[in-house]
Amino acid sequence: MAERVEFAFLRTELHTGLTTAKIAATAKDDKKKQRNRTMARKAYDSALHFLRKSEITESEVAELKPQIEELRKALRELGEDV
């Protein structure tokens, strides 16, 4: 049961990061762009931190990897060093 909660948390954190990265990429206002870029980076860092500590299955990790890569790419496009 704990593994499913961890997996759901990681999936949600990555989804949040991707959403805020997309908002940052399209924002016209610099403050909005920076705020959302920061939130996306925090979601990315949080997901990686908890992924290392989680007990999710290898198949669940494999399911999350494309989202991790997509978020990493989006952050790089926003100028983050990840």
Could you explain the architecture of this structure?
This protein has one domain (2-77). Helix 1 (2-26) packs antiparallel against helix 2 and helix 1 (2-26) packs parallel to helix 3 (58-77). The chain has 3 helices and no strands. It is mainly α. 84% of the residues lie in helices and 0% in strands. The chain is elongated, with a radius of gyration of 13 Å. The mean pLDDT is 96.
**Structural class estimated from helices and strands:** mainly alpha
How many helix segments?
3
Largest sheet: none
Span between termini: 32 Å
**H/E series:** HHH
**Approximate strand percentage:** under 5%
Report the uncertain regions.
none
As a percent range, the share of helical residues equals over 70%
- Overall geometry comes to elongated
In total, the number of strands is: 0
Mean of pLDDT: 96
Number of domains: 1
Radius of gyration: 13 Å
Search tags:
82 residues, mainly alpha, 3 helices
Topology:
Elements: H1 2-26, H2 30-53, H3 58-77
Helix pairs in contact: 1-2, 1-3, 2-3
In short:
The chain is mainly alpha-helical. It contains three helices and no strands. The longest helix is centred in the first third of the chain and has 25 residues.
